[in-house]
UniProtKB/TrEMBL annotation:
<keyword id="KW-0808">Transferase</keyword>
<feature type="binding site">
    <location>
        <position position="35"/>
    </location>
    <ligand>
        <name>Mg(2+)</name>
    </ligand>
</feature>
<comment type="subunit">
    <text>Homodimer.</text>
</comment>
<comment type="function">
    <text>Catalyzes the condensation of isopentenyl diphosphate (IPP) with allylic pyrophosphates generating different type of terpenoids.</text>
</comment>
<feature type="binding site">
    <location>
        <position position="88"/>
    </location>
    <ligand>
        <name>substrate</name>
    </ligand>
</feature>
<feature type="binding site">
    <location>
        <begin position="215"/>
        <end position="217"/>
    </location>
    <ligand>
        <name>substrate</name>
    </ligand>
</feature>
<feature type="active site">
    <location>
        <position position="35"/>
    </location>
</feature>
<feature type="binding site">
    <location>
        <position position="209"/>
    </location>
    <ligand>
        <name>substrate</name>
    </ligand>
</feature>
<dbReference type="InterPro" id="IPR018520">
    <property type="entry name" value="UPP_synth-like_CS"/>
</dbReference>
<feature type="binding site">
    <location>
        <position position="53"/>
    </location>
    <ligand>
        <name>substrate</name>
    </ligand>
</feature>
<dbReference type="Pfam" id="PF01255">
    <property type="entry name" value="Prenyltransf"/>
</dbReference>
<dbReference type="GO" id="GO:0005886">
    <property type="term" value="C:plasma membrane"/>
</dbReference>
<keyword id="KW-0460">Magnesium</keyword>
<feature type="binding site">
    <location>
        <position position="228"/>
    </location>
    <ligand>
        <name>Mg(2+)</name>
    </ligand>
</feature>
<feature type="binding site">
    <location>
        <begin position="36"/>
        <end position="39"/>
    </location>
    <ligand>
        <name>substrate</name>
    </ligand>
</feature>
<feature type="active site" description="Proton acceptor">
    <location>
        <position position="84"/>
    </location>
</feature>
<feature type="binding site">
    <location>
        <position position="40"/>
    </location>
    <ligand>
        <name>substrate</name>
    </ligand>
</feature>
Length: 260
């Protein structure tokens, strides 16, 4: 009886939040730092903390469904940084990448998925199987209706992204026959932005990080310059729809100054 009452209260609260957002300004692009998988597993009594990665991977599918319901057309998810892949225990990294291959990429590349997938990060630091899975997902979704776009940040570092964007820009200008002096004289932020992983997409309006950590960890350093930030104390696998709606309510109540 108690669980039934709790479920009913939760449902009513979620409906109230959704109603409050019905006429509110919503973000076009949300970025998610899916933090706290291992701590969630330990908190829930799992001996293998890596089990949290499976629950976290499966939960992403649900959260993307919430975004789709609300008409949020651009999502970027931070799955693993370069440091994560290099410094964490090899067994844990293997487990994380296997979950990404088996759960996230398989579902996103399936015929029922509406998301067009793009990889954001250094695929050269990934094992062959993960690189192949990401490439397959991109190819399988390339010709989908481009209404919904998902960027998968894996092997990602925000500073490296900016450096690589500058390298790509300089190489393109060199091939066009322009001198370094000409490039320096005409260089603009918009030019650099066209060489970022998210080129052609709006910058994230809202960045949500779970687990209670209050830092960006090098995520989308360029793109998130004017983003609204929302830090949620729950761990990623326990991130509920009401938590998501609260983040959107907080966003809609803010006066966006965009740098001013």
């Amino acid at each position: 009886m108690r669980n039934v009452l709790k479920s009913a209260v939760y449902t009513l609260y979620a409906r109230r939040l959704a109603h409050e957002l019905s006429d509110a300004p919503l973000p076009r692009h949300i970025a998610l730092v899916m933090d706290g998988n291992r701590r969630w597993a330990r908190q829930n009594g799992f001996q293998d903390a890596g089990i949290g990665h499976r629950y976290g991977a499966e939960h992403l599918d649900e959260v993307l469904g919430w975004c789709r319901e609300l008409g949020i057309h651009h999502v970027t998810v931070f799955l693993a940084s370069v440091d994560n892949l290099r410094k964490r225990d090899a067994g844990e990294v293997d487990n994380l990448l296997r979950m990404i291959e088996e759960v996230i990429i398989r579902r996103l590349a399936g015929p029922a998925s509406v998301w067009q997938v793009r990889t954001a990060g250094r695929v050269d630091v990934l094992p062959d199987s993960t690189r192949h899975a990401l490439k397959s997902a991109e190819e399988a979704t390339r010709d989908k209706n481009a209404a919904f776009h998902l960027n998968i940040a894996i092997g990602y570092d925000g500073r490296e992204e900016i450096v690589n964007a500058l390298r790509s820009l300089l190489d393109a200008e060199r091939q066009a026959g322009r001198s370094l002096d000409d490039v320096a004289q005409q260089l603009s932020a918009d030019q650099i932005a066209t060489h970022l992983y998210t080129s052609g997409q709006p910058d994230p309006d809202l960045v949500i990080r779970t687990s209670g950590e209050r830092r960006m960890s090098g995520f989308l350093l360029w793109q998130a310059a004017y983003s609204e930030l929302y830090f949620c104390d729950v761990y990623w696998p326990g991130f509920r729809k009401v938590d998501f709606l609260r983040a959107l309510r907080s966003y809609s109540a803010r006066e966006r100054r965009l740098g001013s």
